[in-house]
Amino acid sequence: MRKERIITYKKSLELENSIYIDVRTNSEYQEATIPGAVNIELLNDQQRKKIGTIYKKQSPKKAKLKGVELVSPKIPALIAEVNELAKSYDNLIMFCARGGLRSKSLAEFSDLAGIEVYRLEGGYKNYRHYIMHKLANYKFKAKIAVLHGNTGVGKTYILKEMEKMGANIVDLEGIANHRGSAFGSIGLNQPYNQKYFESLLWQELKNKDQQDGVIFVEAESRRVGHSVIPEFFYKKMKAGDDLLIKAKMAKRVDNIYLEYIKDIETNKENFRERVLESLTAIKKYLIKKAGKKNYFKLLDLAEKSNFKKLTKILLAEYYDPMYEHSQAKIDNYKIKIEAENIKHAAQEIVNFYGI
């Protein structure tokens, strides 16, 4: 057997055409992983628990023997998966929770099959410490420009268009997998947790933070979905350029409807139930801002699937009063953009910054 190839995460970043292979259970992988990693599960949750119980109550040796018994039937399928990846990537980097037996086992099976792989030193735990250290000591090279504007003006759409035009953006809602409102998770999978959010944020900064450059973001509160924007990043946002995006009500309603249209058309009944749940969740705030009459009107519109009219009332009576107060605190917007046309608005910002 060849000498085992162990590599640190920092060193692994220098490898070209590489992929990380997370050999932990699928539930561990879903909770948080290295961005871009694929999951080749060595043991499932039940099997891992069984081995852990044997380890604690009997002995490490018996636990290892049980592991061999459980993994042996899977070896051909596991190696086939690794081999498929080897056809597309020059460097395969395996990791488990702490760089222990699980990644070591699959690495050795792969080596026996003639597939060279790396094993990540310290596993996911060391990777997580690396990310935490990087973010805790982060020094920006670029400045940040923040897009403000009432709900539905198209800030996210504008950012995406700007990215096509060569601007560096960080889509905070995208890396949180949440749209940042009471209705923000509708049509999306589970919002990402803090660990994965920070991993994705580091990835974005590593690739986009350039000396004397500009990173464009959308105005957000500290919490986006289940994630909290790190203090160093939030402070930079507060100290950055403020840009105001404006659009007429009809355009804003259309933007929001377009954002959810796939979910509406795919399963209108399920979408209606999610909207009703969200309205109920913010009932006391809606009544405080918009009054009981409007609250029950919103419920009725949701029941009738009249989502455009519902959106218009929500914007006018709930979201606009809430956000206009915070926007009024900013008295020095760098530019104010009319966003009736998303592409034109994006081009105007890009031109202003000479990108």
UniProtKB/TrEMBL annotation:
PANTHER family: TRNA 2-SELENOURIDINE SYNTHASE
NCBIfam families in UniProt: PRK11784.1-2, tRNA_sel_U_synt
Pfam families hit by this protein: AAA_SelU, Rhodanese
Single GO MF annotation: tRNA 2-selenouridine synthase activity
Annotated protein name in UniProt: tRNA 2-selenouridine synthase
Entry-linked InterPro entries: AAA_SelU, P-loop_NTPase, Rhodanese-like_dom, Rhodanese-like_dom_sf, SelU
Stretches assigned to the Rhodanese domain: 14-136
Keyword Mitochondrion attributed: no
Biological process, per Gene Ontology: tRNA wobble uridine modification
Keyword match Transport: no
Keywords: Selenium
